[in-house]
Amino acid sequence: MSWQMAVVGALGASQYQAQGKIGKYNQSVQNRNAQVLEGQATQIEQKAEFDIAQFQKQFKKLEGETTVALAKSGVQIGSGSAYNIELSNAYEAKLQENLIKYNSEVSAANKMEEANFARISGVMARNSAKMAQISTIAQTGTSLMSMSGGNFFSGSKGYNQGAGSSKSLFTSNSAYR
């Protein structure tokens, strides 16, 4: 084996290892991205709970102000239009709470989908690196075969020259006639 063949083999092995490391790194980056996105989904859900608590606090304040305003104007609380206003406000409050929950669930589900896609991207990056490694092995092997004149695996010279060789073990008697 010539020194050139050794260099080609070493470079091929080095490239193979680098491609494997790159694939693993890219997969780990995507897995980390997925963890971050899952954390964001959890934060969205927790923020929804906080938003609902804040809304309920503001709603109770509004209810109190409405009750005081109605009492000041001489309206009997709990009957007639006061009751209708109270009931309407309660329905609106429940609708608003459900809307906050729904929006947070949709946002959290979107983050989870992004996380799943990140993991899939990581697997694809790893598989792409494996394909690049296979290509490197094939190209390195092809280069070594062409450098050896097709006899890379023969080990001996003279007797196994390959299919296209013009040398022969037997000399023709016609040359001596």
Structure write-up:
By secondary structure, the chain is mostly helical. The protein has one domain (12-147). The chain is built from 2 helices and no strands. Helix 1 (3-72) runs antiparallel to helix 2 (80-147). It is rod-shaped.
- Strand residue percentage: under 5%
Which spans have pLDDT < 50 for at least 5 consecutive residues? 156-177
How many domains? The number is 1
| H/E element sequence | HH
Query: How many individual β-strands?
Result: 0
Please give the alpha-carbon distance between the first and last residues: 41 Å
Largest sheet: number of strands, sense, barrel closure: none
Q: Give the overall average pLDDT.
A: 85
Counting helices, strands and paired strands, the structural category is mainly alpha
Total helical elements? 2
What's the SSE blueprint?
Elements: H1 3-72, H2 80-147
Helix pairs in contact: 1-2
Defining traits:
mainly alpha; about 0% strand; disordered C terminus; about 180 residues
In short:
The protein is an all-alpha fold. The chain has helices spanning 3-72, 80-147. 7% of the residues are buried.
